[in-house]
Amino acid sequence: MDILKINARKDTPYILFDEETGIFEISGKSLPEDAIRFYAPVIAWIEEYVKSPKAITTLNLKFWYINTASSKKVIEMINILVRSKLPSSELNINWYYKRDDEEQREEGEDYSEMVNYPFNIIEYRRF
């Protein structure tokens, strides 16, 4: 598998998924005009990755804004990782929120509850 890298644009986040390290990151603003089309290659990449995941997979989510359509696609990605996880592998999901942004912190807690999987909720001073 190739590394999946999508550079941030005005309304889309930076994405870097590295199969070799098992470390995935989505960061920035997620407000694409068509979230289904934007996230389609990301979801396809994850579906391929879970066929042979690393022993440890880490998903770092560092949104400073995410709209509802993007949220649905991110939940879909997380569900694929959670449901497909092999018993011998470890999945770490880190939800970063900007210091003093309680709404963003609570959103991470809500996502964790929605997918029924524990997130590490981490205060981040700077994005």
Topology (SSEs and partners):
Elements: E1 4-6, E2 14-18, E3 23-30, H1 35-49, E4 56-66, H2 68-84, E5 90-98, H3 102-115, E6 120-124
Parallel strand pairs: 3-4, 4-5, 5-6
Antiparallel strand pairs: 1-2, 2-3
Commentary on this structure:
- The longest helix is centred in the middle third of the chain and has 17 residues, at 68-84.
- With 127 residues, the protein is α/β, with parallel strands linked by helices.
- It has 3 helices and 6 strands.
- The protein has one domain.
- Helix content is 36%, strand content 32%.
Features:
single chain, alpha/beta, 127 residues, 32% strand
Cα-based radius of gyration, to the nearest Å: 14 Å
What is the count of DSSP helices, taking H or I runs of 4+ residues?
3
Instruction: Give the termini distance in whole angstroms.
Output: 28 Å
Helix content: 25-40%
Bulk shape: globular
Strand content: 25-35%
Uncertain parts? none
> What order do the helices and strands follow?
EEEHEHEHE
Q: Strand pairing plus helix content: what structural class?
A: alpha/beta
Give the mean pLDDT.
93
What is the spatial order of strands in the main beta sheet?
1-2-3-4-5-6
| Count of distinct strands | 6
Q: How would a crystallographer describe the biggest sheet?
A: 6 strands, mixed
The count of domains is 1
